[in-house]
């Protein structure tokens, strides 16, 4: 229905009225500034004080102060007020932006958590909680922030730091290049007060190089790099059979080889279970007889070898020996299928370069998890994506460290002090600990703080299954969601978790008697799924147990004080990796100049 002439003219008058109000908002203060500044300049130069005529002062200052020079009048009545007004405008813009209303990225969203909603994650509460959890901080009046919790970011649009405490367990789901390493992994490692464990599939320009030098100043640095991602010198070896002297321990170790080779939905079939069982029995035999783990590959190659059977019987594992004998003496086609499956799981042990990291080495120190968890050392566990058996060893080592930390916490009265930080970056690729979701239920209460970083929710489902990933998600007291969530189902799930809020809706009706306006309320998603997908880089959603979802501004390490020194150290470490790689691939020459 076309608008009436009356309605059109009314809209025009409203528009002109707004323009008039805006103009008055500029002209009135500017004219008063001109009159005030002009009189101050006249008084300072010995001239008469002009009467109250602000409009004249702005338009014709020479009429009010005829005795003053043109330069004095121009400076006092024109330039100074203009500068003052611009300064006020700039201050207003800065204040506007500081409180989150400036750009699209920092615009506050109604319905998300305020500082009051996340009070338990702010400085005062986390400091008080840290004192209650850590006896070593009882007499410390102002403990450093890193001693009280892991920095997640700033509450958006403010300078209030949001931290997870040292009893929280966290999952971060962030796409590549969304700040998961620069804003979560690196800052948390740099500030950690106790031992640190990091798993990663990268070295140059990553958390490894960014933190290597700083952590070397905090304690000893251990690097396990069986696939030579960082081309690190083999300055340690670790015995995976140390925890395999029981059937449960051997089963856990075999489970890491299984998880590294097949997805969660394939681990329950006959061949996978049988192959894992036979591998566990052979690992148990090697561990009980204090043999290197590489002996298992020889037994897998020759099923008729009775050595593992004799070892198991000698150490009292008669039932296990009977099962092993039954498999060996069973139908050849079944036996060969089971053994071939187990051979595939343990294939990485055939690689001499990988095996060297897990067998005794002369003049190379042994990494002992029980000693590590009582230190301030750092362990870097590096493996390539899809590393098969190599990633199994990485997962087994990380699992061994967390179990040693649990045992130490029990001996220390229940908790580690200082706590241990376990940053499981790229966990779904290089650290597939099958029962990690179950461990989440008690690690935080032991002072063991896991931060599992994934690229997507579905990536976790692929490794731990739908039930396992749901269990980890539910057990996590802190959940961080970064940019790049392209899964519509997961984005909608997050949107529902954030909830709805009331939005006022204004409706206007016009008639011959005039215009009437009414306001009604309707429910609307605080953050719809498309808005979650479009989260800007540098921001993240934080879900904490019992609190409203909060929007965070991430704090990348390179924007913090001291970043120049860290960047220089990171560049030097990256260059050292490149130099070691080139040295390995440069042909050596013999004494006659011939390439060796």
Structure description:
With 596 residues, the protein is α/β, with parallel strands linked by helices. Among the domains are: 17-98, no CATH class; 169-234 and 364-476 and 556-588; 244-350, no CATH class. The protein has helices spanning 5-44, 54-59, 61-64, 70-98, 123-133, 145-148, 180-191, 207-218, 247-261, 270-288, 295-301, 307-314, 318-328, 332-345, 352-355, 369-372, 389-411, 427-430, 436-439, 457-475, 488-498, 529-533, 563-585; strands at residues 149-155, 161-165, 170-173, 196-200, 221-224, 378-382, 420-425, 448-454, 478-481, 500-511, 514-525, 539-544, 550-553. Helix 7 (180-191) packs parallel to helix 8 (207-218). It starts with a helix and ends in an 11-residue tail after the last helix. The model is unreliable at 1-11, 100-105 and 589-596 (pLDDT under 50).
């Amino acid at each position: 229905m076309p608008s009436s002439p009356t309605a059109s003219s009314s809209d025009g008058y409203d528009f002109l009225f707004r323009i008039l109000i805006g103009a008055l908002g500029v002209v009135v203060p500017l004219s008063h500034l001109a009159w005030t500044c002009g009189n101050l300049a006249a008084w300072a130069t010995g001239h008469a004080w002009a009467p109250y005529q602000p409009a004249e002062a702005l338009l014709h200052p020479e009429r009010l102060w005829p005795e003053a020079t043109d330069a004095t009048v121009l400076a006092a009545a024109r330039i100074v007020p203009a500068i003052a007004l611009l300064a006020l405008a700039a201050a207003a813009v800065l204040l506007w932006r500081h409180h989150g209303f400036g750009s699209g990225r920092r615009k506050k969203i109604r319905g998300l958590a305020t500082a009051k909603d996340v009070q338990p994650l702010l400085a005062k509460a986390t400091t008080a909680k840290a004192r209650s959890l850590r006896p070593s901080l009882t007499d410390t009046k102002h403990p450093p922030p890193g001693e009280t919790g892991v920095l997640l970011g700033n509450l958006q649009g403010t300078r209030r730091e949001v931290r997870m405490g040292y009893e929280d367990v966290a999952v971060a789901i962030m796409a590549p290049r969304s700040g998961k390493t620069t804003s979560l992994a690196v800052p948390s490692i740099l500030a950690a007060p106790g031992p640190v464990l990091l798993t990663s599939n990268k070295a140059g320009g990553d958390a490894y190089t960014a933190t290597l030098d700083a952590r070397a100043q905090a304690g000893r640095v251990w690097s396990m790099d069986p696939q030579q991602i960082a081309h690190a010198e083999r300055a340690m070896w670790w015995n995976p059979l140390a925890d395999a002297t029981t059937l449960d321990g051997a089963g856990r170790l075999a489970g890491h080889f299984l998880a590294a080779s097949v997805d969660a939905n394939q681990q329950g079939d006959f061949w996978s279970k049988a192959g894992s069982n036979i591998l566990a029995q052979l690992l148990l035999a090697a561990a009980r007889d204090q043999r290197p783990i590489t002996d298992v590959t020889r037994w897998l190659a020759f099923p008729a070898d009775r050595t593992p059977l004799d070892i198991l019987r000698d150490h009292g594992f008669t039932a296990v020996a009977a099962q092993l004998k039954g498999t060996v003496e069973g139908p050849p086609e079944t036996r060969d299928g089971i053994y071939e499956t187990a051979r595939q799981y343990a294939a990485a042990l055939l690689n001499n370069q990988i095996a060297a990291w897990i067998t005794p080495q002369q003049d190379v120190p042994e990494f002992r998890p029980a000693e590590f968890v009582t230190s301030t050392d750092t362990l870097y566990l590096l493996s390539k994506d899809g590393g098969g058996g190599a990633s199994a060893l990485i997962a087994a080592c990380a699992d061994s460290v967390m179990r040693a930390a649990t045992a130490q916490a029990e001996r220390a009265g229940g908790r580690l002090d200082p706590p241990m930080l376990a940053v499981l970056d790229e966990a779904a690729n290089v650290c597939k600990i099958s029962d990690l979701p179950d461990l989440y239920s008690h690690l935080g209460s032991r002072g063991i703080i896991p931060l599992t970083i994934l690229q997507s929710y579905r990536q976790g489902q692929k490794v731990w299954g739908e039930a396992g990933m749901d269990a980890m998600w539910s057990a996590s007291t802190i959940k961080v969601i970064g940019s790049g969530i392209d899964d519509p189902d997961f984005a909608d799930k997050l949107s529902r978790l954030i909830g709805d809020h009331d939005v006022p809706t204004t409706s206007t009706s016009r008639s011959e008697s005039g215009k009437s306006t009414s306001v009604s309320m309707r429910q609307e998603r605080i953050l719809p799924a498309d808005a979650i997908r479009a989260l800007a880089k540098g921001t993240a959603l934080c879900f904490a147990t019992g609190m409203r979802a909060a929007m965070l501004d991430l704090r990348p390490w390179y924007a913090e004080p001291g970043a120049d020194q860290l960047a220089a150290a990171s560049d030097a470490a990256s260059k050292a990796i490149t130099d070691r790689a080139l040295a390995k691939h440069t042909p050596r020459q013999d004494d006659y100049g011939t390439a060796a």
